[in-house]
């Protein structure tokens, strides 16, 4: 399993590595990247999405194998340390990286995500979506997610953002959807991993997030020893909905990490 990485800005400094949400790809970070022209940024296509092929066996995709694929791609590019920012599924991968490749992490941003495992009903829903994606529905299995991914403010006032998210959902690769849903269904609780991290951190919650709660973010922030940054007017995909606020927060984290 491999992860394609996309470099932006001048190489040579410690990069900011961006990990995308399900079932999107590196493009979801484009607006944030454009607002940080002086940073070396690496946007990742996680296995199964964008330019990264899915595992030949979607049953075999795990968040741990995704994290290992990211670590390998970075190492092969000569990057041994980075600040990682993961949004939702990207956050799950970032937490798996923190468990398995702790030495690579000089700072951590978790946006619209949670360290808790799924309850049984949520797992079942994920496995059903995986089956639908691999059946006749394909990307149609995730079309309705747009209502959960963007907040009410975006639905009401940012029609182009909502339309862009719907387009991305329609392009989501069925093997990627299935593999990632099975991987997310199997993820463990990783609060203890966060408690053991001694790096500058950031936790961001869109006030209109329909998928990850304020409590989810409070619990991660407690473990990391930081306060939650709440973004008004943003839902789950805060980096797409309010990229300027997210870019400022990530630039501040890079500064705190000494980069
Ligand atoms: C995401 O945005 O990556 C997904 O909502 C993650 C999830 O389903 O838990």
Overview of this protein structure:
The protein is α/β, with parallel strands linked by helices and 259 residues long. It has one domain (4-256): Alpha/Beta hydrolase fold, catalytic domain (Rossmann fold). The chain has twelve helices and seven strands. It has helices spanning 30-34, 63-76, 89-100, 120-134, 146-149, 152-157, 159-170, 174-185, 191-195, 214-224, 238-241, 243-256, and strands at 4-8, 16-19, 41-45, 82-87, 105-111, 201-206, 228-231. It has a seven-stranded mixed sheet, with helices on both faces. The model has no long low-confidence stretch (mean pLDDT 96).
Question: Please, how many helices?
Answer: 12
CATH class: Alpha Beta
Tell me the name of the CATH homologous superfamily. Alpha/Beta hydrolase fold, catalytic domain
Number of domains: 1
Radius of gyration: 17 Å
Largest sheet: 7 strands, mixed
Query: What small ligands are held by the chains?
Result: D-malate
Please tell me the CATH architecture by its name: 3-Layer(aba) Sandwich
What fraction strand? Answer: 5-15%
Give the strand line-up of the largest sheet. 1-3-2-4-5-6-7
Determine the structural class based on helices, strands and strand pairing.
Answer: alpha/beta
Average pLDDT, all residues:
96
How many strands appear in the DSSP assignment?
Answer: 7
The H-and-E topology, N to C, reads as: EEHEHEHEHHHHHHEHEHH
Model regions low in confidence, pLDDT < 50 over at least 5 residues: none
Roughly how much helix do the residues carry, as a percent range? 40-55%
CATH T-level fold name = Rossmann fold
User: Quick one: overall form?
Assistant: globular
Terminal CA distance: 30 Å
């Amino acid at each position: 399993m491999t992860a394609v990485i996309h470099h932006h800005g001048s190489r040579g400094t410690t990069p900011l590595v961006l990990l995308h949400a399900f079932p999107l790809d590196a493009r979801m970070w484009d607006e944030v990247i454009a607002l940080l022209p002086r940073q070396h940024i690496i946007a990742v296509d996680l296995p199964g999405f964008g330019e990264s092929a899915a595992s030949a066996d979607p049953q075999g995709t795990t968040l741990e194998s995704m994290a290992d694929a990211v670590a390998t791609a970075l190492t092969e590019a000569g990057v041994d340390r980075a600040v990682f920012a993961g949004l939702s599924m990207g956050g799950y991968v970032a937490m798996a990286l923190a468990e398995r490749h702790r030495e690579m992490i000089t700072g951590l941003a978790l946006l619209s995500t949670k360290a808790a495992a799924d309850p049984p009903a949520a797992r079942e829903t994920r496995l059903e979506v995986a089956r639908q994606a691999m059946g006749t529905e394909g990307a149609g299995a995730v079309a309705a997610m747009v209502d959960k991914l963007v907040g009410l403010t975006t639905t009401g006032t940012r029609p182009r953002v909502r339309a862009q998210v719907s387009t991305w959902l329609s392009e989501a690769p069925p093997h990627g959807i299935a593999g990632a849903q099975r991987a997310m269904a199997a993820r463990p609780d990783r609060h203890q991993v966060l408690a053991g991290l001694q790096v500058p951190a950031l936790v961001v919650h869109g006030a209109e997030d329909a998928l990850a709660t304020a409590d989810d973010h409070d619990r991660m922030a407690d473990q990391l020893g930081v306060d939650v940054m709440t973004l008004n007017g943003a839902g789950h995909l805060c980096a797409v909905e309010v990229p300027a606020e997210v870019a400022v927060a990530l630039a501040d984290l890079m500064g705190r990490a000494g980069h």
